[in-house]
Amino acid sequence: MGLLDILLGRTKPVAPDLDRMFALPSAAVTLEAAAGFTPTGSGAVCFATVEGAAFEQMHREVQALLDADTDRTGPPVELRRDGYGYSWLVSRRSPDQLPQLVNDLHAVNSSLEVNGFGPQLLCSLAAFADGSGRRLALVYLYKRGTFYPFAPLSGAAERRDTALELQLKAVLGDDLRIEQDLGRWFPVWGAPGL
User: Fold this and answer.
1) Could you say which of 37, 61, 80, 165 would form a disulfide bridge with 128 (CB–CB 3.0 to 4.6 Å)?
2) With the C-alpha atoms ordered 136, 23, 25, 175, is the resulting torsion angle positive or negative?
3) Is 18 part of a structural domain of the chain?
4) The total number of structural domains that make up the chain
């Protein structure tokens, strides 16, 4: 960043750091101990919808990479589109395989980035639930390199449990780099696995 940038108040954007995703398994231990939420085994990578041969080739490569893991049932990565026009590459594991799920999400993000789709990447999430059926996602913002909790309310049309989200912000602060700007805690309505 140069002197002119400093004088004009410009800031350098935060570079994505996908390795921060590897903190999710330790955060899951804290989350279970403090709030009773456990992994569901579902995770997804969200990006602006991309079409074309280059994307199809990258999708096949990710499928082949993750298909090499014989510890999985079903397809390695499933492509879905939500009602808002975004695409999701969804991975499913058994609930006790959160580290493997994080590896899947990291591989999908890395493949999209390496193949030139980094600008389309929006977020990744890992889903959790508690004994009473409440759902939660820990969302990783690709362009910010930060996490935030998203807790949709059951049976409510696009309403979220902000009190729980703020409680979890305090609980997870030592395990994850939490997004401090609450305005960036975007709802991920229709996210697969939630």
Assistant:
1) 37
2) negative
3) no
4) 1
Q: Is residue 55 part of a domain?
A: yes
Number of H helices, E strands in the chain: 5, 6
Could you count the other beta carbons within 10 Å of the beta carbon of residue 68?
A: 9
SS3 content of the chain, % helix, strand, coil (to 5): 40, 25, 40
Give tens-digit pLDDT for 83-130. 888 889 899 999 999 999 999 999 889 888 888 888 889 999 999 999
Q: Residue 131: which domain range? A: 34-179
Domain membership of residue 145 (yes or no) is yes
The tens digit of pLDDT for each residue in 127-169 reads 999 999 899 999 999 999 999 999 999 876 789 999 999 999 9
- What is the model's pTM? 0.85
**Would residue 191 count as lying in a domain?**
no
Please give the Cα distance from 97 to 99 (Å, whole number).
6
Q: Which of 182, 22, 190 is nearest to 106 (CA)?
A: 22
